Structure formats: structure tokens, C-alpha cells
Amino acid sequence: MNINNSLDWLAEEFRRRFETEPEGIWSAPGRVNLIGEHTDYNGGFVLPFAIDRRTRVAVRARTDRKVQVASTFNGSSPATADIDDVGPGTVSGWSAYPLGVVWSMREAGVNFGGFDMLIDSSVPVGAGLSSSAAIECAVAVAINDLAGAGLSRTKLALIGQRAENEVVGAPTGIMDQSASLLGQDGSAVFIDCRSYGSELVPLDLAGSDLVLQIIDTKVSHSHATGGYAARRASCERGASDLRVDSLRDVTASDLDRAAEQLDEETFRRVRHVVTENERVQQTVEVLRTQGPAAIGELLDQSHVSMRDDFEISCPELDLAVETARHNGAIGARMTGGGFGGSAIALTPVDQVDAVRTAVLSGFEQVGWTTPDIFEVQPADGAHRAR
Ligand code: ADP
Ligand code: MG
Predict the structure, then answer these.
(1) What residue ranges define each of the domains in the chain, with the CATH number in brackets?
(2) Which residues are bridge partners to 47 per DSSP?
(3) Looking at CB atoms within 10 Å, which of 44, 54, 282, 341 has the fewest?
(4) What is the pLDDT of residue 1?
């Protein structure tokens, strides 16, 4: 679908539903994390990029303090609220994402009189590509522009995160919103999750005849939420036992000492975070000096660390990664929180079909759900589309 057609379609659908003209359309991308997993809440480093799958919101401002939000997403019924009543504990379901941003924008001192909004997204939901941040960031930039608030991208990322933490109730870090707001075509976003500082890093995949394949295993293991909370708790325990504020303050040279001070399991959790932070910094360095064809081994090491030390992989992710590697990918790893979701494979253009065929047949042989395999490109961050 051509992008102008889809904007026209969205405007038309807005008119049909709200019987009025949209005032504008804003757009924000999903993201994939190239490397740096479970480092964000440890004050560490991540390296995501904004992808060419986007969420678009058509909006018309209101003056009666009402907010009406609708989405084209299957089974999402429209929601209506008074903006003065929206806040933690008052909304549930999908509308907590847009309404959460309404609340956190107001908490940040932004004044507006309400709006009608229609949301349409090409970011797959629950595949680890942050369809949630794409909504939050599209809503945040729309309100920012309509209210003439002029908030910085970094501030908008914090506003999106606050909506997700306090209104949706998901204890996520700052990575997803930062990537969606700060991303640029041809670049990854290197984020310091302690200072919130960020830098763009060149990621010219096409120029190196490479493709980033997403392998969405479509599995979501029931212990994912508990597992995420348990890993966060292990990291907090590790930091407290080592008497540091966060694991960001531990380096590879501290690991021998850490092995003596920590119990065996906590030590492995800590070792993942420490080595992963170093791998992110090395990946940035390698991208700047040699380009993406040289980062494969770092991706592989990241997967091994998540599988063996952090123990957040699962048989489906391991099979996807191993099969991709044995069939032409130069590096592969699980991405996202773990216990299901997606793997990424960095694959030479001429091996893409071989990887896809091998992964599909590998899953078929064991009788698992057919994964979704597709390509993503680095793309521009959130902006006004019309
Ligand atoms: P991810 O961000 O990895 O895709 P999350 O569980 O964080 O997964 O967020 C997915 C949730 O976000 C969905 O369950 C739904 O509530 C909401 N969501 C995402 N995309 C849309 C959409 N286009 N319309 C309505 N709700 C959406
Ligand atoms: Mg999400």
C-alpha cells in the first residue's frame, strides 16, 4: 500500500466515524532492539532502531474536554472519557495507551481541550516490536503539536513511558519510546538509559547488502510477566549485594569479585547485564568503524548470554536463532523481554530466502505454530504526516 493512499484511507475512515474532518495525521514507528536486552532498567545501554512499520493517528481537537478514541485494530471498541477524569486506575484495555498519554501530558503541564482520534497501525501487536510505544508516541506528538506545547523528544519519551508505567501498569523502561521518537532513516539510536542521552549511529543495512529479518515465533509463554519481574528482582538483589546503585556501575573487571559475593544464579544474571552493556558499546564502535557486516558475532554472543546466563530464551527462540545461523544469517539473537516473541537475524540479501525456508520447515518438523518472518528497515521517528 502506498503511504499517501493509506493516509487518504485513514482520513476517510475518520470522516466516516466522527462525521467531521481530521485536523491532521501524526505517525510514529515501532522499533526493534538490535542489541542491549534487560539493560534499560539497570541504567545501562540499548541500541534499538525505529522500523518501517508505523502507527498513524488522525485527530481533530475538541473544546468540551471530551476525548474519543477509536482504533481499526480488531476487537477494539471505541472509548470516550472526560479528560479531567482520566488517570491511573480509571482506564483499562487498549484505550489505556492513548488515554494514559492524555493523562501524562496533562501531568506534564500541557493544556488542551480534548479531541477525537482514530488510530491505525501496521506494527504487529505483541511481536516485541512495540506497538504500544508506537501508539503512545503518535498520540504524544499529536497532542504536543495541537496544544503548541513544544516539548522535546526526550521529554515526550518520558511522558509515553509514564503512561505505560502508571496507567497501563507495565513496568517498562525508556527504550521503546526513545527509539520511536528519536529514530532516523539509516540509523540506530544508542541510548544511555541512566542519563537519557542518545546518539544516532549509522546503520546502513542496504548499503552492505544486508537485511534484518524478524522471526515472530508467535509464542508467548505464560511465565513471561513473572519471569520479567523475577529478572528485575535478581538485578536489584545483585546491585544491592555489590553495594552499587545499579548494575550499570559494575564492569567486566568486577566480575571475579562478584562471583565470590553473589549466589550462583544472581551472579549469572549480573554477568548477562554487565557483558550485554559491553556488547552494546562494542556494537556501536563496530558500526561506526566497520559497518553492520561486522556485528554478527556480537549478536550471537548476546543470544548465548540470554539463553544461558539470564535464562529468558525458550525452545522456539533457540530454534529460530540456530536455524537462521546455520542457513546463512551472519548473526542472530532473540530480541525483547524473552519467553517468546521474536528473534532477529542479520542476513545477506541473497540468503534471505534460505533462512526463511529453513526456519519455516524447522518449525513445521516439530509441529510448532508457523512463525511470521518479515524484514524491517531503519526508518524515521515520530512526525506529523499531514
Ligand atoms: P508490543 O508493544 O510488544 O506490541 P504490548 O503488550 O506492549 O506489546 O502492547 C500491545 C497492546 O497495545 C495491545 O494488546 C493493545 O492493547 C495495544 N495496541 C497495540 N496496537 C494497537 C492498535 N493498533 N489499536 C489498539 N490497541 C493497540
Ligand atoms: Mg509494548
Answers:
(1) 3-200+379-384 (3.30.230.10), 203-376 (3.30.70.890)
(2) 35
(3) 282
(4) 45
Amino acid code (one letter) for 71: S
With 0.85 as the threshold, say if the pTM is over it.
Answer: yes
pLDDT in tens, 329-361: 999 999 998 999 999 999 999 999 999 999 999
Could you tell which of 119, 125, 180, 219 is best to mutate to test the pocket of ligand 1, judged by most ligand atoms within 8 Å of the CB? 125
Alpha carbon of 345 to those of 8, 171, 188, 303: distances in Å?
34, 27, 16, 11
> Which residues are within 8 A (CB) of 168 and not within 5 positions of it... i.e. 6 or more apart?
96, 97, 100, 132
Atom of ligand 1 nearest to the CA of 120: 23
- Look-up: residue for cell 566480575? 255
Q: Is 131 in the pocket of ligand 1 (CB under 6 A)?
A: yes
Q: Cell numbers 486506575 correspond to what residue? A: 89
Which residue out of 118, 131, 177, 217 has the highest number of ligand 1 atoms within 8 Å of its CB and is therefore the one to mutate? 131
Per-residue pLDDT at 79 exceeds 60: yes
Query: Which ligand has the minimum distance to the alpha carbon of residue 128?
Result: 1
Q: Is 132 in the pocket of ligand 1 (CB under 6 A)?
A: yes
Model confidence at 221, pLDDT cuts 50, 70, 90, reads confident
Residue 27 β-bridge partners: 56, 383
Q: Percentage of the chain with pLDDT > 70? A: 99
97 lines ligand 1 (CB under 6 A): yes
Whether 342 lines ligand 1, by a CB cut-off of 6 Å, is no
CB 118 within 8 A of CB 126: no
Q: What is the rounded distance in angstroms from the CA atom of residue 289 to the CA atom of residue 209?
A: 17
